[in-house]
Amino acid sequence: MPDWLQLMLNSLPTLLWAALIFTAPLTLLSFVFGLAVGLATALARLFGPKPLVAVARFYVWIFRGTPLLVQLFLIFYGLPSAGILLDAFTAALIGFTLNVGAYSSEIIRAVIASVPRGQWEAAYSIGMTWNQAMRRTILPQAARTAVPPLSNTFISLVKDTSLAAAITVPEMFQAAQRIVATTYEPLILYIEAALLYLAMSSVLSALQVRLEARLNRYGGFLETRA
Amino acid sequence: MIELKAIEKRFGDNVVLKDVSVAMAERSVTALVGPSGGGKSTLLRCINLLELPNAGTVKIGEEELVFGAGRRVATRDIQRLRRQTGMVFQNFQLFPHRTAIENVMEGLTVVLKWPEPKARERARELLEKVGMAAKADAWPATLSGGQQQRVAIARALAPSPRVLLCDEPTSALDPELAQEVVDVLDRLAEEGTTMVMATHDLRLASKVADEVIFLEAGTVVEKGPAAEVFGNPQRERTKRFIATLRHEQESAARPA
Fold it and tell me: Which of A99, B40, B56, B196 could bond B7 through an S-S bridge, CB–CB 3.0 to 4.6 Å?
């Protein structure tokens, strides 16, 4: 067996372990929380009173307009000066959540607005309240349109978690860096890390295809037409 | 049973309904006819408050709501009035992510909180009535326009509304498919369903309606029993309009 392959195989358990206990939870938790923040922000912008619209726009402006790495540094290294001390994982989780929230809010706002007005009216006409119409009629249709753009966000997020290495979270990329520090084989280790990120994104892409197929079972068009 | 008094509706500076007062009796079928932009759709949508009048009174059965400047009408009151009505739309507006029978059940399970089996039973009866029982589990996208509209009629009837409102129910359909829908509405009329329909379709209006209201530029030009308005219109304007409709219908029916 060539040396480089031996090294890759030897490092694999360490990298996979780091992926399992840091990269995966960080990705999943910040995506779920980020979607909740994104939904709330989108609803605020679409239906909220003016002050709330302004708050939502301000939040999106800040988190979309500044680098993610800078946000992470501010939360982990900056906030302690203001008396807020967070452990690295929590700081990363907050940073990624707020970042995902800002980006996904724009997607969610667009897909909710894309459901035809007639669907609201149909829901109201059978007696539904706003909440019922939103939950039963609008969101399920919006969700289908949202799958491709939200999959983009999700896949970006998996890769972006490598930035957490810079604020001392021992996730997969940092694990690779540590092995490099003792083996002096950056080319091999970083290729291995890249391949593992590629593998994770590929799994997500495959899941996206299956989810889309499931949500498409009721027909190819968003609006049924004569 | 339905009473609209002094209804006024504006969109910005555009006055769509001017001081319209009409009444519809229980078990009657009223056709709102007139040129596009005349206000018939808006008047229909003022009955179930999809549009809120700027002024006037809407009364259905014992429920009454008064609109006017400076008056705030509570969402709950709007809902209470709206639940006396069912509506059929020009382009059907079935929920595309629910099957035909789920569309019909939706108002029963979600709004009236019926248990699922009871709702399913009622939905099946209604699909039977509109001739769609065989397609109960089909997705709306796989149905023809006429089939979708028949499911939409069943959906609107499910919560047993006091009145069925139809907004151009046949306008998006070719003559053959429109006929299916006309037949269903005709049968409902014979069973005594109270209906108000905005329509261009002379066949629908003359076959199903007992009363006709002719609207133009937001005012009632003529109203009366269907046989009189269609057979012997009093106003020159009505006469011309009906002649045009008749002409259109005949040239459409003639083979090309």
Answer: B56
